[in-house]
Amino acid sequence: MPFRVLHILGDSRPEGTAIARIVRSLQQHMPSRDFEISACFVGSEGPLIAELTRAGIPTSVIPWKHPSRDFFGAIRFASFLATSHFDLLHFHWGGPNIRRVGKLVSGAKVVFHMHSLVEESRLERPREISTHNSDAVIAVSKAVAAGSKHPMTRVIYAGLEFNGAVVRTEDPSLCGCATRLTPVKGVSYLLKAMSFLKEDFPSLCLEIAGEGPLRADLESEAARLGLSDCVRFLGWMDPWDQLRARWAVMVQPSLQEGLPLSVLEAMGDGLPIVASCVGGVPEVFLDGETGILVPAADARALADAMRKLLTDADLRHKMGTAAARRACECFSAQRMAEETTALYRELL
User: Fold this and answer.
1) In a domain, 307, yes or no
2) Distance from CA of residue 345 to its chain's centroid?
3) Mean pLDDT for the chain overall
4) 187 and 278 inside one domain
5) What is the pLDDT of residue 119?
6) Do 126 and 187 reside in the same domain of the chain?
7) How far is CA 231 from CA 181, 198, 284, 319, in A?
8) Other beta carbons less than 10 A from residue 253's beta carbon
9) If phi over 0 gives left and psi between -120 and 50 gives alpha, with beta otherwise, what is residue 245?
10) Residue 16: which of 76, 90, 95, 93 has the closest Cα?
11) What is the CATH number of the domain that holds 76?
């Protein structure tokens, strides 16, 4: 009989797409004779439930309004675990108390997946992420692993399917950014960089694919900077492969990152990237070879790097080709599944 593994995710809205994609890739590449993968969203209904179900992953949702204040949500979560008989709980969401409940109720081994060092809503008051009540910790990058005090912490880079099917239809006057619109993503610095480039590149446009609580503020800021005609807020776009196929440059201006899947996806499509040198980003691509790294919160450096790529088509092609090769060689879904399989087997 295969071991039963439950992936516990917090958000079934599009904001949780990246983590749902990791779960889907693991289900596709881990040996089904050894592991039976299920998923559980803790919160409200959302489109990712149907997405994982279509991928063949049994998926549940546990209504839970707030982890520390919704007593009945906690009871529903505990009752679900008590009657489902899982061998391993793989938490992508929640704190140590939730993992403690899961461990006590189910008797299962617990893996905590650290996708970042900080909560996005707590950039101004960062809170250390605790690894307590875990049997093992998966960190998405070495930078994230450095924040774990757990003795059994493994760095397992996220992996994706790279099929090379997207045909590039580059518009040399179009840049893009795919991100959540939250403070930690640093989009305001990208808008400032666009204002610096406006005079030299009057036809330059920026597309921002993403949604979040700062959207209205960022739209107002773009208007204040005189960028309303050249900055387009597209909302959530999934899939977004045809969108990024048109971008000449992708920009990731984050102030903190674990390992951004949007960067991996863009690399796999051969898209040159300008990104902040934060978190696991410099572990993903090589500065000056597969993209350009800049200091975080530096709009002028973002603008200079964008200018360098926008004015040199040969450099864009060279970096894009190197990026695609590195993505395929180092960040495959198969590699991620093999390393996760090894960790599961060690625990079980």
Assistant:
1) yes
2) 26
3) 92
4) yes
5) 63
6) no
7) 14, 11, 27, 25
8) 26
9) alpha
10) 93
11) 3.40.50.2000
Q: How far apart (Å, rounded) are the C-alpha atoms in residues 210 and 206?
A: 13
Q: Evaluate whether 204 touches 310 at the Cβ level (below 8 Å).
A: yes
pTM exceeds 0.85: yes
**101 and 215 in one domain?**
no
Q: Which residues span the domain enclosing 214?
A: 171-330
Q: Which residues are CB-contacts of 86 (< 8 A; sequence separation ≥ 6)? A: 4, 5, 6, 38, 106, 108
* Ramachandran quadrant class, 235 (left: phi over 0; alpha: psi -120 to 50; beta: rest): left
On the question of a cis peptide bond just before residue 253, with omega within 30 degrees of 0, the verdict is no
Do 112 and 194 belong to one domain?
no
Confidence bin at 123 (pLDDT 50/70/90): very low
Q: 118 or 170: which carries more pLDDT confidence?
A: 170
- Asked if 255 and 242 sit in the same domain, the reply is yes
| 266: its two tokens | 């863009």
Q: Name the token pair of 16.
A: 């949780």
User: At a CB cut-off of 8 Å and minimum separation 6, what does 273 contact?
Assistant: 249, 250, 251, 252, 263, 266, 267, 285, 290, 291, 292, 323
